[in-house]
Amino acid sequence: MAVIDCNHVSIRYITGDFKSIGLKEYVMRKLTRNFKVKEFWADRDITFQLEKGDMLGIIGSNGAGKSTLLKAVTGIMLPAEGSVQTKGSIAALLELSSGFDDQMTVQENAYLRGAMLGYTREFMDQMYPEIIKFAELEDFQDYTFKQLSSGMKSRLAFSIACLVEPDILILDEVLSVGDGAFRRKSGDKMREILDSGITGILVSHIVGQVRELCNKILWLDHGKQIAFTDETDLYLDAYEEFLHTKKLPKNREDVLLLADAFHVRTAKERQEKEKKEMERLEQILEEGKKETAMDAAISIIRKNNPDLLDEDKVNEYLRGDSK
Predict the structure, then answer these.
(1) Is 114:161 a contact under the CB 8 Å cutoff?
(2) pTM for the full model?
(3) Which residues pair with 217 in a beta bridge?
(4) Consecutive sets of 10 residues in the chain, 323 residues long: mean pLDDT of each?
(5) Which of 22, 47, 57, 107 has the most crowded CB, counting CB atoms within 10 A?
(6) Which strand (E) or helix (H) includes residue 116?
(7) Is residue 114 within 8 Å of 77, Cβ to Cβ?
(8) Which helix (DSSP H) or strand (DSSP E) does residue 94 occupy?
């Protein structure tokens, strides 16, 4: 059995007059057939399977149905059609503040979140020092949760989810928050987790993050499944070009065309960037002071004819040893 089996899942939201009327009025309108409802399908006929150790990246523009699908996988929502089966315990970070109490301290919230994930107090006693250290909140343990910044909250939530022992880890945009140093640390932790055999799902608008961490891709657009594949580089190239052109692929041939266009466009952009940099350095050579000109000359030669440089002499110059 797959660790996660999502089989032809469709998720529907219903809105209508019942939101603004009482029970009596609702019954009367039903009897007189004067009751209107609207259906909105957030996801339609989504199918994928994940084995142990897989990391799925779900991509798509805003409104694609990514977060709604995660809620079905975690059991928060029930699909209107199809089924979702999971094997093992789930730790999900869908909203940074979910599962926390603003009036409780950082330490109390850590234990509360652990209890919600099904862990004993003895286990949390053992893991708590490591959780707080990883979250870099050693000096904030007695602060209430509402006093923390959004970055601190995300670090605490991520630390609890990753430093405990779930079978399935689900992350919705949480690797995109915090400073650069913590994002790198969380990325390293995710790679360590995946190496241990945990199955994961990541929703992220940072394509590079998905490239680095995921071995499978689920592409959604307005609730429809565009692709589920292990050809991550090909489909991420196509997706990046789709973000640029808004041309949605209808088949594999379209995916290949989008990926090729992405390579051509990025190569051209890279050449233009290098050309501008070269022009800037040449201007420095013509107008700058001796030291600035020398640095610019070294940079130009390194890019175009590195074999001409004596790196020992260059390093000696950069250290200021030359006379």
Answers:
(1) no
(2) 0.74
(3) 57, 229
(4) 92 73 71 75 95 94 92 91 92 71 92 82 91 92 90 83 80 68 77 82 89 94 96 97 94 96 94 81 66 68 68 68 50
(5) 57
(6) helix 106-116
(7) no
(8) none
